[in-house]
Amino acid sequence: MRNYLSIILTILLFTSNQVSAYEIKRSFSDIEKMLKEEIYFDNCRSVFRVTNPNYAIDREDTYKMSVLIKHNPKNFRIKEIIFLNDSKTLKDGLYVSKEEKSKAIFEELVYQLTYHCGINYPISVSTYKKYNISEYILDYELKPQWQMDIEIRLTDKDARYISENKDKIASSKKKIKRFEIYDNFPHNWTLFGTKLYGKIDNLDIIGKFVIYEIKENEKKNNYEFQCVAARRLDDKPLIIDTLTDSRGCVIGNEIDFGLTNFAQGYTSDNHYLIRPANNNESFSIFIVRYSPLEKRILSITGKSKASFENHDNCIDVGNQILDNLYESFISTPKNYTINKKLVGENPSNPNLVRIYLKTDQKEFYDSDEEQMNALFGVYGFGCIRDKSSNSHFYVYLTDAWRNLKFVKEFQIIEENEKILNEKKLGKDVKDGIL
Fold it and tell me: Are 431 and 17 in contact (CB under 8 A)?
């Protein structure tokens, strides 16, 4: 492989930048070093050691192995581990033969990589993405006393990509994409004065929910370590009447399931606690969830201070609120479609009022793509039981296909990152950094 890299480096010598061989070699070495730091030291520390005493190598043993590792480009989890070669001098162990020992060491390495290291890669391994690295070689050396060392090498494929694409990438005319469906949305679909599809720049943000590590001097007993907490953006506790204590922790460190549904759900970080334009003293918190790319509001939710011992009473209150809201909608002509329907916690017993607001006349949407691009609002409520079977009341306004819009925008973000990384890679090569 190094012979091939030498050829690539020679080719690069004759670019208009006249980059020296020393600089290019150093650049590849720097990339490999960064990969080692990010993949091993930052994310997979200590997982490569073989700790089963039956397979531990003796003081006189040596064992080196090289594997090719390929990743799933969508989430960076390890997709494939391919054995390349090994070099070893092993003796028979007390309970196993040297052949069994060699096989067990390889299987242990694959297991550790796949089920420990491989699941802990962050979604944005910066070096991996920046240089469009699709695979790499891991050189693994096992030493006595269960110690080990690794090195990471670029493959011919990645070296070839860097050399062959430098001019095309540097001059790339690809443009950063947007998801423009929310622009100039004309309708005033609001809850507590907060507009669906509005920009989060216009919000009075007071904090968000996080998993908070309780400090030693804050613990009320020896069993407290973490809590679900409301925190301000400066990480100070957010005190919410009837909901959080002086640390910002949800009282009793027990969260009713509604907070998980309406604050976090599938996109745990894309929410804020806000002070709405039309505050209502009967509600303790107001939550917005926003899209990751365009930063547009995709749902607004309010949680009532009061809870209900009787679940049916909670449903009756919610239905009455939505019935009144529907009457106010239809009292004046609108240039969009308004429908009221009953849905059910149990499909055989539809008893929950929902109000649907649509900007088009379509009755059915035939594909995910159509749903992603539809501006379709839903007013609803939830009566969510806690561990004590009390029902907590939530009222909300949401995009009907909010989660599909999250998926679409995350896809665009990944595409934009690739475009930016390609442009940066091309610039690095043209400027003599690589």
Answer: yes
Burial of 324 (0-12, 13-18, 19+ CB in 10 A): exposed
Give dist(CA 129, CA 151) in Å, integer. Answer: 19
DSSP string, 138-168: EEEEEETTTEEEEEEEE-HHHHHHHHHTHHH
**Distance, CA of 73 to CA of 65 (rounded, Å):** 25
Helix, strand, coil distribution of the chain in percent, nearest 5:
35, 30, 40
Sorted by sequence, the CB contacts under 8 Å of residue 9 that are 6+ apart come out as 21, 24, 25, 28
CA 156 to chain CA centroid, nearest Å: 31
> Could you give the C-alpha distances from 100 to 20, 53, 92, 94, in angstroms and in order?
48, 13, 9, 12
Query: Quick check: 28 and 156 in contact, CB under 8 A?
Result: no
Domain-wise residue ranges, the chain: 2-164, 180-414
Confidence of residue 13 (pLDDT cuts 50, 70, 90): very low
Question: Distance between CA atoms of 352 and 118, rounded to whole angstroms?
Answer: 44
CA distance linking residue 20 with residue 12, whole number of Å: 9
Residue appearing with tokens 């029902």? 391
For 13, 201, 234, 418, the CA distances from 157, given in Å and listed in that order, are 19, 44, 45, 18
Lowest mean pLDDT among 23-32, 175-184, 186-195, 249-258: 23-32
For the stretch 121-156, pLDDT in tens is 544 455 666 666 778 888 888 776 656 777 888 887
How many residues are listed for the chain in this entry? Answer: 434
Q: Are 416 and 156 in contact (CB under 8 A)?
A: no
CA atoms of 130 and 70, how far apart (whole Å):
16
Contact 86, 102 (CB under 8 A): yes
Tokens 């613990």 identify what position? 219
Residue of 417, 430, 419 lying closest to 170 (CA atoms): 430
The 3-state DSSP class for residue 238 equals: coil
CA pair distance 390, 388, nearest whole angstrom:
6
Closest CA to 35 of 164, 131, 144: 131
The structure tokens 């918190």 sit at: 285
| Residue 330 confidence class, pLDDT cut points 50, 70, 90 | very high
Grade residue 358 by pLDDT with cuts at 50, 70 and 90.
very high
Pull the structure tokens for residue 299. 């749902």
Structure tokens at 125: 């391994």
